[in-house]
User: Fold this.
Amino acid sequence: MRSPVYTSTPWTETYSEIIDVRSQSEFAEDRVPGALNFPVLNDDERANVGTLYKQISAFDARKVGASLVAKNISQHLAHHFTDKDKDYHPLVYCWRGGQRSNSLALVLSQIGWQVTVLEGGYKTYRAHVREQLEHLPKQFTYQVLCGLTGSGKTHILRRLAQRDVQVLDLEGLANHRGSLLGQEWEGKLSPQPSQKRFESLILHELQRFNSQKPVWVEAESSKIGQVYLPSSLWQQMKQARCVEVQLPTSARIDWLLQEYPHLVTHPDILKNKLMRLKSRYGLEKLTQWFQLIDSDQWETLVGDLLEAHYDPTYSRSMSHSYDRVEQRLPLSDLSDAKVEAFLDELSA
Assistant:
């Protein structure tokens, strides 16, 4: 019979699968890239065992916990592992590389599979992420695309990525467009990843890139919604060469209305978000915006928001963070033909 193998550097090897045995909420907060979630204790079970441990005794908690773990492992074996061949080689981890990962690893190894357990569990992985994000961002040369709100910067960069240019889509990873109204909509307001998950996603992207080629990134502040850029990356971005896209205000308004249709169809959400600007611009300005919303004067509203709030905010942010705007490229609109021509000029 085999015994589990233990490693603290799993990223140097290849595995058939990576199995995260933590509860669903732990997995959702962050996980090793590519991991599958097969909890040996779900959230409720883990909470109940913990309560037993604190209020009754460790012995009673272990008895109940063992029963639940055995039941859950049995279900995982029946539903996931039955079709694995004899060469199957998983990496298994939990929070600290303790009882939860070892419980599944022992069963799988006794079946005859080679099983590796991550020593220190997720905490080892998290330490690896922090260490890598201190050094890896410094290995790249960045080019920053800047421009006023509504200039289509994210759209342009994603089209650039389709040309096999290295693009770090920070707003995509953060699931947020980086402004007051930037929370993504997927039938409802979509949550952002946790800070830990955001950092894992950034590291995963950087590890795919070639350090001999530039990485394009959008001009962001140090915070996108509720998540923060790694300090090392932020410092590199501030020192990078910037290219500014210049789009007419009318085209920016059209683009924003196209990109944020949920704020038109759900004006209550828009009003709630604009309420956060009351202390900055006063009740009179807020009332004006609400009247424009109620009367469906969307172009006027967006134009005034750009003039009163977004454009001054952009100017302040650029002066504080990005002082190397070395090229300014005009773009009349964001039609496919115009964007392709813009990309040709950008790549020249």
In short: The first strand starts at residue 5 and ends at 7. The radius of gyration is 25 Å. The chain is about 55% helix and 10% strand.
